[in-house]
Design a protein that fits this description.
The structure holds two protein chains of two kinds. By secondary structure, chain A is an alpha+beta fold. In chain A, about 30% of the residues lie in helices and about 40% in strands. The radius of gyration of chain A is 35 Å and the shape is elongated. The longest helix of chain B has about 30 residues. Chain B is rod-shaped. Classes of the chains: A alpha+beta, B alpha+beta.
C-alpha cells in the first residue's frame, strides 16, 4: 500500500513542477504589470500643475495692457488701463483650477503717468507706451505659487528723414522707422495730415505712395499744398496702437 | 525501459516548466510596451501650450472677437499634435456660452478626457475677456 502511494507521488511530481512553473509565471507577469502601473501614476504635484497655467495668465495681462494702450492712444480715457485690469482681475477669480489673485501697480515715474506715456511732440521719436508691475498669486488646495513681473508695451515712430521739393506744390518724401519694444515692427496703416492756415487736411491714402522695406522702415511720397507748413503723420501698428509725429515743412 | 523513459520525461517536464517561466517574462514585457505613453499631465501641457501659442500670435482673441469659430477650429487642428481630439467651449465674462456651434474635431471615444481652462484677454481697443474650456483626449 505504502509502495503504491510512493509511486503515485513520484508519478505526479512532473505535473506539480508544471503547476509550480505556471504559478511562478503568473507571479512574474502580475509583478511586472503592477510595477509598470505604479511607475505610470502621475507624479506631478499640485504646484507643478498650477505653474502650467502661469504663462497663459501672464499673456492675458500683456494683452490687457496692449488693448488699453490701443484704446488710450486712439483718444480713450487714461482710466481705461485701470478699468481693464480690474476686469481682468475679476475674471481671474472665476477660474476653476485655483484661486488667482492679481494685483498691479501702474508706473508713475516720468515720463509715465498712471502707467501711460503718449509722447508725440518730441523731435526725434514719438512714443506710445504702457508699463505695469504685476504680482500674481495662484492658490491650490495644498500649494501656492507666486510671481512678480512687469509688462512694458511700447510703440515708437521715428522720423528718419524728410525731403521737400517745391514747385507749384510741395513734393514730400518722408522716411520713418517703426518699432515695438525697441525691435523693428510692421505698421498697419499710415494717415497723413497737412496744416494749411491753421486747418488740418487729410491727404487721401490713395495719393500717398508707400514703400515697405520689411524691417520696420517705411518711405512715404505725397504732395502737399504749397501753403502747408506742418505735417502730421498718424501710424497704427499691427496691435492697433497709434503714434503721431509732427514735422515742419515750411 | 519504463525506468529509462522516466528520466527523459522529467527532462521534458523541466523544459516545459522553463518555457512557461520564460514566456511569462516575454509576455509581460510586451504588455508594458503596447500601453499608450501619453498621460494626463502631457495632455494638459499640450492643450495649454497650444492655446498660449495661438494667443501670443494674437489669433485666439482675434477669431473670438470676430466670432470666427470655424477658422479657430482649423488653427487648433494645426497646432495640436495629430491623434489629439479636442472640444472647445467659450464663455464671456458673465459665463454665458458664446459658441453655439461646437468647436471640435471629432467625438471622444477615449475614457480619459482632460480639461484645461484658459483666460483670454482681447488685444483689441475694445476690451473683452473670454473664459475658454478645452477638453482633450487621445484617439
Amino acid at each position: 500500500m505504502r509502495e503504491h502511494k510512493k509511486s503515485l507521488r513520484r508519478n505526479r511530481s512532473g505535473q506539480l513542477l508544471i503547476v509550480a512553473a505556471l504559478a511562478i509565471a503568473l507571479l512574474i507577469s502580475s509583478t511586472t504589470v503592477y510595477v509598470y502601473e505604479v511607475s505610470q501614476e502621475p507624479v506631478t504635484d499640485e504646484s507643478t500643475q498650477l505653474s502650467l497655467y502661469l504663462p497663459g495668465l501672464k499673456q492675458s495681462t500683456r494683452n490687457t495692457v496692449t488693448s488699453s494702450l490701443a484704446n488710450i492712444s486712439k483718444g480713450g480715457e487714461t482710466a481705461a488701463l485701470e478699468t481693464n485690469l480690474a476686469e481682468l482681475s475679476d475674471n481671474m477669480l472665476s477660474l476653476d483650477f485655483g484661486i488667482c489673485n492679481l494685483s498691479y501697480t501702474s508706473l508713475n515715474e516720468s515720463p509715465y503717468d498712471s502707467g501711460i506715456v503718449l509722447s508725440w511732440n518730441r523731435t526725434d521719436a514719438s512714443v506710445s507706451g504702457a508699463y505695469v508691475n504685476f504680482t500674481l498669486n495662484i492658490y491650490g488646495i495644498n500649494s501656492k505659487i507666486s510671481t512678480q513681473y512687469s509688462v512694458n508695451v511700447t510703440t515708437t515712430l521715428f522720423l528718419a528723414s524728410i525731403a521737400v521739393n517745391t514747385d507749384t506744390v510741395k513734393h514730400v518724401n518722408l522716411t520713418c522707422n517703426v518699432s515695438n519694444e525697441d525691435k523693428p515692427a510692421p505698421a498697419e496703416s499710415f494717415v497723413v495730415y497737412c496744416e494749411e492756415s491753421g486747418t488740418w487736411t487729410k491727404i487721401e491714402s490713395s495719393a500717398v505712395l508707400q514703400m515697405d522695406y520689411g524691417n520696420g522702415m517705411y518711405s512715404l511720397c505725397f504732395t502737399a499744398p504749397l501753403e502747408s507748413t506742418q505735417l502730421l503723420l498718424q501710424m497704427n501698428d499691427i496691435r492697433g496702437i497709434q503714434v503721431q509725429a509732427k514735422c515742419n515743412i515750411a | 525501459m519504463k525506468a529509462a523513459n522516466k528520466g527523459q520525461i522529467r527532462i521534458i517536464e523541466a523544459f516545459f516548466a522553463m518555457l512557461i517561466v520564460f514566456s511569462a517574462f516575454a509576455v509581460s514585457a510586451n504588455l508594458t510596451i503596447t500601453r499608450n505613453s501619453v498621460n494626463r499631465a502631457d495632455l494638459e501641457s499640450i492643450g495649454l501650450g497650444s492655446l498660449i501659442k495661438l494667443d501670443q500670435e494674437g489669433v485666439l482673441s482675434y477669431y473670438l472677437d470676430q466670432r470666427n469659430f470655424s477658422t479657430l477650429r482649423e488653427a487648433l487642428n494645426l497646432v495640436l499634435p495629430t491623434g489629439v481630439l479636442f472640444n472647445l467651449t467659450v464663455y464671456d465674462r458673465n459665463l454665458k456660452l458664446i459658441n453655439e456651434q461646437a468647436i471640435t474635431n471629432g467625438g471622444f471615444s477615449s475614457e480619459e478626457v482632460v480639461s484645461v481652462e484658459y483666460l483670454c484677454a482681447s488685444q483689441d481697443a475694445v476690451y473683452r475677456c473670454y473664459i475658454i474650456h478645452l477638453q482633450l483626449a487621445m484617439t
